[in-house]
Amino acid sequence: MLFVNFTGSLFSSFKSKLHELAAEHKGKGTMFLVGDFDASKNALDFFGVKAEQAPLIIVQTDAIEKLLKVQVRFDDLASWLKE
């Protein structure tokens, strides 16, 4: 799950990179969910994150393990997904 400010200046860069990554990971069991910080307060509260940590990625594994990366740059998305 990627949480980013949809009205922020970086959103178009994230959106473009996510489309590219989704195409690369199609059929590999990776799912992408993008949420706007302003509309995702309940989800953010659930994961214990704050708006100033945006943009951020939360990866939840099958074992319910949660991995968090804050202050994400769109250039880092591909390498982080490989980890």
Automatic annotation (TrEMBL):
InterPro entries: Thioredoxin-like_sf
Highest taxon in the source lineage: Eukaryota
UniProt protein name: Uncharacterized protein
